[in-house]
Task: structure prediction
Amino acid sequence: MVNSQNAQLIDIRAKKKFESGYIQGSRNIPFTDLKDRLAEIRAIEQPVIIICDMGVQAGAAIQMIGKDSVYRLEGGIGGWQGAGMPLVGVKDAKSKNKAKTKPSLSK
Result:
């Protein structure tokens, strides 16, 4: 399970994309606002999982945050949905093309 350690899920997609479908329990801090909220994110004691569209922008966010217990969701929200995992706010959360692998985390 992605959130087995009560990690804080931070979705860095734009607000409009976040509102169109997100992982339950995640909160939205758009990438464009990240620099202004670094102290807030660094103060989080639990592991942090960064979520973006495909996983690439999350890698840049991890470098910017500069904290050991920060991970990215491999494949981003697209990989999550492609694996058939649920999203909040989506009318049809089932993906047309299911991936054969489960979502995973990386540094």
Observations:
- The first helix runs from residue 15 to 19.
- The domain at 8-106 is CATH 3.40.250.10 (Oxidized Rhodanese; domain 1).
- DSSP finds four helices and five strands in the chain.
